[in-house]
Amino acid sequence: MEIGLIVKYGKLVPGREEQAIALFAETTQWFEEQLKTGYITYFEPFFYASGDLEADAGFWIIKGERDKVWNVVDDETFKWLTLKAQFLVDHLRVDWLTVGEAIPQQVERASKVSTEFAFVH
Q1: How many CB atoms are closer than 10 A to CB 35?
Q2: In contact, 72 and 34? CB cutoff 8 Å
Q3: Exposed, middle or buried, 15 (CB in 10 Å: 0-12/13-18/19+)?
Q4: Alpha-carbon gap, residue 54 to 107, rounded angstroms
Q5: What is the per-residue pLDDT across 47-102, written as a single tens digit (0 to 9) for each?
Q6: pTM, 2 dp
Q7: Within 13 Å and on the Cβ side, how many CA atoms surround 26?
């Protein structure tokens, strides 16, 4: 089953902008390697164009087969990249996502539960 990962971050830490930009390039290169070797099936960085840009500057979306993405997150390089980011950006957050064929399954479960808890008049 395919899963997703979102890595969100806020503004760059003042005085560490060059290091943060270098980390962005390093992370991009590493995810490209993971894509080429088949550990992930998709990755893309995004930047926010509106909103609270101090708290939400951008994010990465990563997708792939569950076991392979878990291995990517458990990889020592991913751990180092994440640790570096903690010193270079504000509001770093890493979350798992439901994606692909799991979406209709989740909607179906929600539909069944909402029927169970529906208001009776």
Answers
A1: 15
A2: yes
A3: exposed
A4: 33
A5: 999 999 999 999 999 999 999 999 999 999 999 999 999 999 999 999 999 898 88
A6: 0.84
A7: 13
